[in-house]
Amino acid sequence: MKLSNLTLSTPYLSLDPIFFHEIAPTPLKNPRLISANLKAAKLLNSTLELHHEELENILNGTFMLKGSRPYAMCYAGHQFGYYVQRLGDGRAINLGSVNGLNLQLKGSGITRYSRQGDGRAVLRSSIREYLMSEAMHALSIPTSRALAIIGSDEKVAREQWERGAIVLRLSPSWIRFGSFEYFFHTNKHKELESLADFLLQESFPHLVGVEEAYLKMYGEIVMRTAELMAQWQSVGFNHGVMNTDNMSAIGITIDYGPFAFMDTFESGYICNHTDSGGRYSYDNQPRIGYWNLERLAHALSPLITTEKLQLELEKYGNYFTTKLMTLLRDKLGLDTPHEKDSDLLRVLFTLMENGRIDMTPFFRTLSQYDGNREKLLLLTLAPNQLNEWLDRYDERLALNSSSVEERHQQMLRTNPKYVLKNYILQEAIDAAEKDDFTLVNNLLMLAQNPYDEHPDFERYAGITPQQHTNLKLSCSS
Ligand code: AMP
Ligand code: MG
Asked: What is the CB < 6 Å shell around ligand 1?
């Protein structure tokens, strides 16, 4: 089946017009397809094929899919702790949904919510979002997906002139914490309730008609957000802009900006260059997840009593810790919980920081640990600490019921060989700026198969070259 034969629906437009702005995309000059993602296409229809020209036209807004009525969504949000009354899709335009996924163009021109912005996204950040959402998905981390990306000759002004690009993103929902905040802070409680009903129908259908459905939905959002934070922490992912408008109401990773996979482990790492205070540093993420859920609870307070919301929110810490411990035990190949595990992990993270250990190659090497420590000790600047820890790890492994071989297999499926560190993404961006999209497509393949061996790309599995380690990224995108 061809993409142009899909029929979309637009249930969001059944809400009051205050929720959106119907607006057509503004095409880019000389669009060209950079990459298409067949895996994501299969989510729309299992027989879908992707064709070059068709994709260019759909992403550029010059071909409208059947049933599509493009619109931008209205929302507000707390940005760096301060409430901003009206944000909204300033550069994203929704096309409609099919098979439970909402198709959204990012970078397709101005909308009512663009404020001072130009409605565009640059090639650099579009490639980053396109690849990273696929990488996160392959690591089993809930995320929006991406169907395709186009570049263009459209000039876009940032710190320097760059070229415009558009990503076609997919998500079961684009509703954000900030969507609820918008209606709460403008005292529109009837609309607040309509939005809650819409989200229930769209993403929590099992709760429709259930007693205290709004409360239960909030409870699930708390759980999903807590678990998402645990997943980010476990792989060393720093999102960088956890404003409430970038927090998905279904607890998935959205709005990829100056994010980073950490290179050497650094608990206070800040990927976002403009975040001088470190509000969104790596180690603050779980706390910020909680703070954002508090803002959501406040926004929902006309619908649910504060006491009940608070009781749900209080479960956050337990959800987070339970999930994190499970993920980290899996990373270490520990097959049953033990009371000393949290201490073993605490010491490990301290020594990773002290020894400037690059997380990804470390856990991957540990996945084949058989008592010979040579390769592991080469990865740290503090070998004595690692040696002492490995003594404890050996003792702990003795309590496992699985065999060494079983542990190796399980750990190799848990600890990726390839994550898309920023320097790797930058290589693909540099080539794409020269109209060579080969590496973007190669990285898509790597991103989607992070646990496999890829001998041609072995160098991306090693320690990040020092000059590229833990850099900060600009927010302008
Ligand atoms: P972000 O931090 O990228 O999620 O963006 C925050 C808000 O600014 C959202 O409402 C975006 O839609 C809007 N925005 C960001 N960049 C642009 C742009 N170039 N043009 C219009 N709106 C933008
Ligand atoms: Mg955003």
From this structure: 87-91, 113-114, 117-120, 241, 246, 255, 257
What share of the chain in percent tops pLDDT 90?
A: 98
Q: What pLDDT, in 10s, does the model give residues 63-100?
A: 999 999 999 999 999 999 999 999 999 999 999 999 99
Query: Residue 428 forms beta bridges with which residues?
Result: none
Give 475's pLDDT tier (boundaries 50, 70, 90): confident
CA of 476 from ligand 2 middle (Å) equals 12
Catalytic positions: 245
Burial of 112 per CB tally in 10 Å (0-12, 13-18, 19+): middle
- Dihedral (C-alpha) 28, 31, 36, 41: value to the nearest 10 degrees? 50
The pLDDT of residue 232: 98
Phi/psi for 144 (5° steps) reads -65, 165
Quote the pLDDT of residue 388. Answer: 98
Written as six digits, the tokens of 122 are 């640059």
Q: What is the pLDDT of residue 291?
A: 98
| Ligand 2 mean position, distance from CA 443 (Å) | 24
Residue 89 alpha carbon, nearest atom of ligand 1? 12
Q: Quote the strand ranges of 223-352, DSSP E.
A: 237-238, 260-261
How far apart are the C-alpha atoms of 239 and 246, rounded to whole Å? Answer: 10
C-alpha 92 – ligand 2 centre gap (Å): 9
3 state SS for 157-217: ECCCEEEEEEEEEEECCCCEHHHHHHHHHCCCHHHHHHHHHHHHHHHCHHHCCCCCHHHHH
CA distance 151 to 164: 6
Give, using CA atoms, the residue closest to atom 14 of ligand 1.
90
Give the atom of ligand 1 at the shortest distance from the alpha carbon of 255. 4
Q: What is the pLDDT of residues 205-215, one digit of tens each?
A: 999 999 999 99
